[in-house]
Write a structure and sequence with these properties.
65 residues, alpha+beta, two-stranded antiparallel ribbon, two-stranded antiparallel sheet, 1 helix, elongated
Length: 65
């Protein structure tokens, strides 16, 4: 479970059917990275890294033909 905007860093004990739910700082859902501070810094960096990889592969294939 991701708790948005939890600035105090409280230790939360959330349970469902006697099963403790882990609280995390980041969570990837449908390919989008969410973080508890509601900033998309991690998502932007991930998108830039993926674009760099794609450009590198395109440049390699350009010279193979």
């Amino acid at each position: 479970m991701l708790v948005f905007g939890d600035r105090q860093g409280r230790n939360r004990n959330i349970t469902i059917n006697d099963t403790r739910i882990e609280v995390v700082d980041t969570f990837k859902f449908l390919g989008v990275m969410f973080s508890k501070n509601r900033h998309f810094t991690l998502e932007k960096q991930y998108a830039v890294d993926q674009a760099k990889k794609a450009m590198f592969l395109v440049s390699i294939r350009k010279y193979e033909t």
